[in-house]
Amino acid sequence: LTYLMAGTAEAPEPWYLALLGFAEHFRTSSPPKIRLCVHCLQAVFQFKPPPRVEARTHLQLGSVLYRHTNNSELAQTHLEKAWFISQQISQFEDVKFEAASILSEFYCQQNLVDSAKPVLRKAIQISQQTPYWHCRLLFQLAQLHALEKDLVSACDLLGVGAEYARVMGSEYTRALFLLSKGMLLLMERKLSEVHPLLTLCGTIVENWQGNPIQKESLRVFFLVLQVTHYLDAGQVKSVKPCLKQLQQCIQTISTLHDDEILPTNPAALFHWLPKEHMCVLVYLVTVMHSMQAGYLEKAQKYTDKALMQLEKLKMLDSSSILSTFQVILLEHIIMCRLVTGHKATALQEISQVCQLCQQSPRLFTNHAAQLHTLLVCLQMTTHQELWTFIVTNLASVYIREGNRHQELYSLLERINPDHNFPVSSHCLRAAAFYIRGLLSFFQGRYNEAKRFLRETLKMSNAEDLNRLTACSLVLLGHIFFVLGNHRESNNMVVPAMQLASKIPDMSVQLWSSALLKDLNKACGNTMDAHEAAQMHQNFSQQLLQDHIAACSLPEHNLISWTDGLPPVQFQPQNGPTTSLASLL
């Protein structure tokens, strides 16, 4: 509160200093005494203060009520008065623009977005001579448009901000605006605009000489965009140099001290993320890469590290981005659990994602499709890559069911890898070839199946997509076995088994061991057949025990949830084996 006294034209009255001092004392008490703080601030009005003091006190009261109480009506009244009165006073920028910023934030929290926009627009219009506030308000309005999915308006505002920062002589803030715009263009899949923009950003970041932490944080932002761009395209091998640079960059940041001198240019008083948040983000993109590449033990290792870091951060920081990071990490580790044959743990972690989404309507909106069953989430997502991913998985389910021919052919028409594939993702196109191969195998069209699977192998080998490689090898091995070509079958199944063990992929190991058993039996290799049969028995037992454990969990009821908000949470009998239980 006391920092708001800065900039008063005349020495403050003793009564004002006393009331402000008491208010600050009560606000910072442990625990805070908010009611007494509010009483002290309200007492200021008894003295009929001048307009500057009146506006500042309304702002202080509105902020305290908004941040620390549920009295939204009174908070709104005070913030609106602070904004109205301060506009009539010249040379009163800090109070004026802070009032506009907090009032807009309040309106958004109350779902009054249409009330927030004109306040921000007016504040942006009259703040051009105040570089810090002009940039901050542009970022705030751009974020508001982005949350509404109006990415075109958000990008326009970020472009305005970049040009303003250039004129103000802050290449650092110009880079922040441009990188933010690049992030939104990636979300919109406007790749023709992304590439030149990222090239420009790369040049600005490398040429900028300034605060080392600011420079490295710009490099992290730039590299995170590059890495996610590659991963979106399913280019798991091509991304490795960028990912390595990113990991080195975050190591550099962790050795730098935060107590650097503040920038002299007021337009440069911004930072992208706290370095602790950046660390979690780098762990997160590393997990995404490991998951796509099929290095599941590595994905588990980095997920555990990231979740431990999040656990510490959430004790001190209520930032919503931390919950978003947590949900994305859990989504990836859940996929790992399903592959490695740990469905019971996956169910408990799905339940945790539900709990996190219940706490935030925005999180639920953005992640409901990922949580839901395949049929339902097709109706819930407009994201083209997610839609294609779901259709590919659903096609796999229909093929195995064997009696959903009409629905299956309808899906396959929409994800034809040879013609008009809906997305540019290398990984998803390779998966679509695999689905075609699987269908041809079940239909007994073996030569056609081999063509599709060799296409998958070519694509998956090019980008180190280990799981697709393992699945394609074992299916090719199965085809050669059916055709009586035992030698070629063995050449496929043995590397499939090795790769599946390395991932580890329990289902492919089960499939490979069954095939090895039959193959060795057919070739008269009794000892090897017996060993393979024992392996198959072990994998079967593990998967069966996990299946029984998953079905007995209270969280298993989540599979019947197909609409609306997640059901009321169940009390898990035993927490999962990671540190997740203590997070919630």
UniProtKB/TrEMBL annotation:
Output the Gene3D superfamilies linked to this UniProt entry.
Answer: Tetratricopeptide repeat domain
Q: Which GO terms describe its biological process?
A: cell division; chromosome segregation; mitotic sister chromatid cohesion
Q: Which residues form a coiled coil?
A: none
Nucleotide-binding as UniProt keyword: no
Membrane-crossing segments per the record:
none
UniProtKB keywords: Cell cycle, Cell division, Chromosome partition, Mitosis, Nucleus
**Location relative to the cell:** Nucleus, Nucleoplasm
InterPro entries, alphabetized = MAU2, TPR-like_helical_dom_sf
Any GO CC annotation of this UniProt entry: nucleoplasm
> What domain of life does the native source organism fall in?
Eukaryota
Ubl conjugation as a keyword of this entry, yes or no, is no
Protein family according to the UniProt entry: Belongs to the SCC4/mau-2 family.
Please give the name of this protein.
Answer: MAU2 chromatid cohesion factor homolog
* Native organism: Anabas testudineus (Climbing perch)
> Which lineage is the organism of this entry classified under, starting from the top rank?
Eukaryota, Metazoa, Chordata, Craniata, Vertebrata
